[in-house]
Amino acid sequence: MLRPYQQVAIDRALASHKEGRKPIIVMATGCGKTHVFTEYAKMASKRCLIIAERAEIVIQNYRKADVACDSAAIEMADSWSPETTMFPPRVVSASIQSLCSNWKGDKRMHRFNWREFGLIVIDEAHHAAAGRYQQLLDHVRRENPDICILGVTATPDRRDKKSLACSFDHIAFKYEINEAVRDGWLVPIRSKLVQVNSLDFSEVRITAGDLNAGDLGRVMEFEKNLHAVATPTLEMMGGRQTVVFCSSVKQSERLAEIFNRHRPEIAAHVDGKTPPDERAEIFERFRKGEFQILCNCNIATEGWDCPPVSCIVMARPTTSRALYTQMVGRGTRPMVQLDNESADSRNQQIQDSMKPDCLVLDFVGNGCKHSLCSSIDVLVPDLDERVRDRVQRKLQDEDEVTEEKIREVEADELEEWRRREITAQVTYDTRNLDPFSLLGIKPQKQSAYTNNNPLTEKQQFVLHKNGVHTQNLPPNQQRQALNKIFDRRRKGLATLKQMALLARRGHDQTMLIGITFEQASNLIEGKPIDTPAADRPIRHGHGEPQRNAQSPLGGQEKVEAEIPATLF
């Protein structure tokens, strides 16, 4: 039986496909993504291909599809879908690596008759920007232009900031961890920020959007830091089944060794090089409770379900909210069969169960030039970026971090921020304007949803001409500023340079946001703001009459067409 939000996700994906779009479903770990897309495949009139990255996920998808659709097969390594039979399986669960591997002088994907397929599901769809996926999708679309594409993921943001627009064009449904917890489908998160003064990330570089693995490993493998993680974990986890996420294989192995030194046979370690049979055995022993702590490196972040896990140890600092959310999601599954009656009823069921919550231990350094993710990014994903770091510092001494506490501190810090903004001396350099401070708008965060492609030279020229230097602005914020410039020009409002000059002369910044080009010109010339300019047409940015408003890109409408206001 589908849960209400799962039915909504299916309905919206179906409506999106009917419109000819390529939707993606974003659903928190533990909310039944596999159940959603296998039920969706069951509705398809043609065959369905489900693609995944890892063997465990391929096998998991096969098992659930075989039950839901009565006919499924695996296409991976030595397992081959029987394509030559009269009635081939309705669902094929395949690994992207196998589909793109060599086969009879060609690629393995070429052995399928893609006209028989009506749907391709990409599990963990944040991987879909990778070259292998694009190679497969390009081939399939050539063979069958009408095939439907559906992406499913818990975390659409990529660490390398690449856009998913190459594969999807519409977020049909989004359901995050904090929403699922509030609705009683996932267990509440209890968070503790653990201060470790010896952790110093000041020399750790950023590579592909996250902390450099080599630099990070050297910090986290330091003997003092290993014990600084192990000792608080042993003290705080109690009797909880605990998963420790590590930044390197060596760190994971050493932590397991230290845990076992304190309490013999309490911990085990797995990584990508652990043989599959041995890894499966370790996971099964952990699930049964034969040992309490599972240390891992890059192996338990995706496609592994273990409801008994009720403590997550973040011994792998990251700047990626997507990766952090994946790790937290390993501990939010409830251990009780939930009903569909009400959120209050489900929350009570969870409270009365063997797993009433999930404890997350965040290890915080003494200082860091990077903005590291913590549980506050999961509990309050829309936390105001302007005060995020101050909120995290304020909560370090709390025994427990909850959504309510975060919201309370955020409100206090925002009020303090506004007070500082009002009382601060307003100064602007007209040669290098900050359009976001000047206009009182919040810079758009860079993510998989935003258009992160570089601007053209002509678009860059428009920004520079308006006094906005782009060296320190990511492409999506450059595009945001450019849209604002043209929006103000279209409405006949003051230009950024006019506003900056008037602000330097002591005029109220909030008043300047709404004045027209003509009013700003009058103020600059020392005239009263309500003095009309004699015999002049209404002018827009840079003093051009509206009928002749041209941009260096060949016209205002052309510029706006090149800057689509879409999520991607």
Structure characterization notes:
- This protein has 568 residues and is α/β, with parallel strands linked by helices.
- Helix content is 39%, strand content 15%.
- Helix 8 packs across helix 9 (249-262) and helix 17 crosses helix 18 (475-491).
Question: Which key features would you list for this structure?
Answer:
568 residues; alpha/beta; seven-stranded parallel beta sheet; six-stranded parallel beta sheet; 17 strands; 39% helix; disordered C terminus
Put the structure in a nutshell.
This protein has 568 residues and is α/β, with parallel strands linked by helices. Helix content is 39%, strand content 15%. It has a 7-stranded parallel β-sheet with strand order 3-4-2-7-8-1-9. It has a 6-stranded parallel β-sheet with strand order 10-17-16-13-15-14, sandwiched between helices. A two-stranded antiparallel ribbon has the order 5-6.
> What is the overall shape?
globular
Task: List the uncertain runs.
Answer: 423-431, 531-568
Sheet/helix structural class: alpha/beta
Q: How many E-type strands?
A: 17
The mean pLDDT is 83
β-strand percent reads: 5-15%
Give the distance, in angstroms, between the N- and C-terminal Cα atoms: 33 Å
Note the main sheet. Answer: 7 strands, parallel
> What is the count of helical runs?
22
Strand order of the largest sheet: 3-4-2-7-8-1-9
Alpha carbon gyration radius: 27 Å
The percent of residues in helical segments reads: 25-40%
